[in-house]
Amino acid sequence: MNTDSKPFSRNTLHLFVATLVLFSGMAALTHQLLWTRRLVDLLGASTESSARVFATFFLGLSCGSALAAFLVGRVRNPIRIAGWVQVSVPVLVTPILFLPTLTDWIWPWIGVWSTDGFVGRAAKTGLTLAFVFPPSMLMGISFPLIVAGVLRRHQRSVGRLGIVLYAVNTLGGALGILLTVVLTLPALGYFWTMVAAAIVDGLVGVMLLCFGSAFTVASPTPVQDSESRSVSARDRRLFARMICLAFVSGMGVLALEVVAFQMFQLVATISLFSPAAVLFCAITSLAVSAAIFARFEKFFIGQARRRNIAVVLAVSGVLVILAPQVFMMISRQSNWFAATNGVFDFALKLGALSLLSVGPAWLVSGLVFPFAIACAGKDCSPVRSGQRLGGLLAINGLGGLVGAEVTYQVLLPIFGVYGTMTVIGLGFATSALMTSLHGQETDRIIAGTFASIAIVVGVVVGRENASLPVFNPTPGVHLVDFQSGRQGTVAVIENENGDRSILVSNQYLLGGTAVRYDQERQVLLPLVLHKKPTRVGCIGLATGITPGAALTLESVDEVTAIELSPLVAKAAEAHFSDFNHRVCFDARASVVIGDGRTVIASKADYFDVVTGDLFLPWAPGTARLYSKEHFAAVRRSLRPGGIFCQWLPMYQLTHDQFQMIVDTFVSEFGDAELFVNHFRVVSPMLALVGGKEPGGLNWKQVSQRCDALRVQNAIADPVLRHLPGIQMLYLGSYPATQSRGPRVTLADPYLEYAAATVRLSANPASEYIHSASWVRFCRERLRIATDQVSPNDAQLMALASGLMELDHARRTHNRLAIPIELQLSRLIPNCFMNDPSAEMKRWPGPVITTDAMEKDLVAPDMRLQ
Fold it and tell me: What pTM value is reported for the model?
């Protein structure tokens, strides 16, 4: 063919195609990221849901690539077909844009318990397939057809050009991740970012259709039977080996990516920026690998190609096995993440750690798939090269899917993070050994030697990897139990005093026995505020202490604890039963493994009381539980007279973030009654209490409830046994008329971004509401509340504020601590002192010493009764 007769030069066409391939890759990875976040709003934020979306996306890509392989030899202009495919992507993406609106009715319609059973899992799988599979399959069709069209235009086999386009497409995916997380999501939100990605897909399709004539061949070129028969048996065997190699490559690379992210979680602050940074480094490394291979293609697939690929596999195995050692050496000696100066600094540090520890393994293992492409397409016609490229992409994607699932389901639970790295490395080394069995004798000796060295290194270093610490030990703290799986790492730790806690991903504690009375108060407070609760829902199990406390009340017939992580549920069952009233075994209680949003949404008019645990807003996906949509679902789940109590970790919130959450709350519940959990300034907790029907608290009912529970001796906590104690915890009402700011919605990621940004700043503690800032916050709320309550109640609330000031003065060794204590001793209500059944060890704050109580500064009868 005379290519000079075409209106475009070869270089211009190549640049044009590379640009479109780049943008296509950017849009594809943007879609994948946003689909995962969008679908979890429907399916739940569990790792199972994320894995379901991930698996469906890769399955769609694989099926699309396989379909492209079928179409290549049966169409005249693959570029035009790719154009129509790209134009169709926005159409199939549109339903995902309106997902919350389309699916509000699904979980209530399916039924109360369906989210935890076969029906729920089947529904989630069906919904994922319906929304994700069609557009992802179209994306899988596009790239192989574009490459096939270019190859046919120039009558070339896949070779360097095809691999360069693969590298460009992969690099586009990395850039898509970067732009989405850094630029478009915070600026546009989920909806408009998805719209922008869909527009890019459409524009790529339009450009392919407009300029597709430049790639039209003289006549249709179906695969002729004669060509098919001319393929030698040797060539077929070569292609079969390349299929196996493509599968091994996809399996190994995705398995490595999965375990690498969990390894980085052990030292890097968890936020939405963490997975994005790791994924960007991984995909960029693969793009660089493909570019390197394209540059040295003739060397890699020369006469010693079997030896070369065996050496590449063996070196990959060694680098994977050594990665944990390098990772631990850097993170230990440099104290890498001891302090970060913002998101950019954090991303640079995490990226550097990724590239230094796992980057070499990604870089070398990334040579395997381009090797398979080059060898399979060598000396083939353009049509057959295009077919084989599509087939290899399909097999590679399938291998990635299998590798990720095997790692999640089998390797991580059995071997842990570092042990799984060793297993993956040995897998590469074993593949190298099998490859070395073929070829000339010299090549077999060289390749076999490298493979054997890799296996020996795996055995020796693997034993050291198994002994690497999985959590940061502190003096006096030892590891009781450790689990690893799809949900990350969960450790049960115990200090020298015998206090146990659950440590998730080596990052944050899910409560513990040292603060068990505060955790019990989280559910007991709303149970006292309710007239007579029978059904209780707790969003969050953690140690089980909070939902377990509800079992102490006779009126409670049913407690439903919803826990996202099965690993956490196992830890609560195995190690905290002595503290959580055996909630995992009690016939009145049930532990539902799932996402709180979807489970609650499935139970309309079901609960009398629902409590929301302390959800850290910077954790990926957690901000959904502060959204307007979630609060609306909770309100629907309440029976008439029902109460919702959402606890806020004020020590992890700024004033603006708190304002945004409380404004969202009152937009659904009318007014919010504010309660503190304790009178300490460290780790302060604030409750937003709202009812099914607006109207505020009925204090007469609360008083009667306290009297009844005190007669039954159902509660030992002194502040919950008496009305004055409840009033001490009260911070007044936040009326809906005070609402003035933006709301938290599923479509707007602002809260999560803002919380993650503050957490990664140089001094996040200065931004949070705790210590002196918490004292000022409470003082301001009490000033507002004095207009809402009686003078006696105001005096009780002032006592609570004084206790917080006393706690702060003691912690800061302020000389005013003694005068404050003496002043407060005059105000302690007699009901606490005269209640022998109250356990004063449960007192939620600083204790007024006996000496102070006995000071004759004020007559005893002046104390509040």
Answer: 0.87
